[in-house]
Amino acid sequence: MSELAEPFDMALPSFLQHLRMLEASELVDSVKRGRVRTYRLTPAALEPATDWLAAQRSRWERRLDQLDRYLEHMDEEEDDR
């Protein structure tokens, strides 16, 4: 854990608290062997967030396409005047 925390400007107890939160939310898991605790990411835990972001992206792409069509239409009407 101290090797993992090394690049961060953070006290080790604070870093451990962050790791515990990540582990509680199942974004990481850990294995302890002797005095060494090894952490690894669990990417499957991010799938719900990935799915939600994909839906939001799709929704906003549709909305921006609609806005683009509307603005083009407004520009055409202005050119016709």
Describe this entry's structure for a reader.
Helix content is 63%, strand content 15%. The protein is of the alpha+beta class and 81 residues long. The chain starts with a helix and ends with a helix.
Reading off the top of the CATH hierarchy, the class of the largest domain is best stated as: Mainly Alpha
Tell me about the biggest sheet?
2 strands, antiparallel
Strand order of the largest sheet: 1-2
Count of all domains: 2
The CATH architecture name of the largest domain reads Orthogonal Bundle
What is the N-to-C succession of helices and strands? HHEEH
Distance N to C terminus: 69 Å
Attribute tags:
81 residues; alpha+beta; Arc Repressor Mutant, subunit A; 2 domains; two-stranded antiparallel ribbon; 3 helices
Could you write a compact summary of the structure shown?
The protein has 81 residues and is of the alpha+beta class.
How are the secondary structure elements laid out?
Elements lengths: L1 H4 L6 H13 L3 E6 L2 E6 L5 H34 L1
Antiparallel strand pairs: 1-2
